[in-house]
Amino acid sequence: MRTRLGVLGHRGYEGVQDVLAELQRLSPQLGLSLFVERGLLDDARDAAPLTEETELDVLLTLGGDGTFLRGARFLRGRQIPIAGLNLGRLGFLTSGSRDHLGSSLHCIARGGFVVEKRMTLQAHVTDGVGRDHYGWTAVNDVVLHKGGFARVLQLRATVDGEEVARYSADGVIAATPTGSTAYSLSAGGPVIVPTVESILLTPVSPHTLAMRPLVLPPTAKLTLEVMREATELLITVDGQVGATFSAGETLHVQRSPNPILVARIDGEGFFFSRLREKLGWGGLADRD
Are 201 and 173 in contact (CB under 8 A)? Predict the structure, then answer.
């Protein structure tokens, strides 16, 4: 049986065309059926177009972490493993590299990859009369923050109906364990192993030393409200999509019933090696 491989990528990365050419060359030998998103079909004329209805066994993203996150949104909760081929610099979510494309494709074709299940968040907004607006799924984080003006926000956070904190800050991040190494980390949040399910609540530039990041259970239902009139408020999901937010509205965040399946195709210890390699975690190297 042929493996149905979807391919989604970012043309802005150098070498995308070469990777697509290699994919087309190796796919017949490996028993792969290629489905490529329409924006890349000019460089993959032997492939079929990839749509949201295409039945897949694996989705391969070509680019960096942003492309990987777009791939997760593309699947819309479908439980299909996502393998990321890193063509950029950081590539914390991706697990393969351009230099090992052949071995990565062999791994995908024989089903030799390891799948890690990562929790995601679902978020929506209700207005003052309880009507729902918007609706997102986040792999990394949901952020409520200010727009253009340097004004402090007054935010009220509750968990399961109990008030947790009143933040005076530039914003608040609700992050998954996967997202603990993204924006939350730069805002002073802890690193959480991606398979340890939890919700991380991290204030952005809080205006008091008493405010610290908080790790919540994965079952927590978080709500965020603005305590006083404010303008130019934004909700940003995974740094890529979002909407405006107004006083009188409430942001609801909780665990999504649909995790993502991260395919590890590099054969290495994934998380801690990434921390050491990409983020310099673990302190200074031994000196002679």
Answer: yes
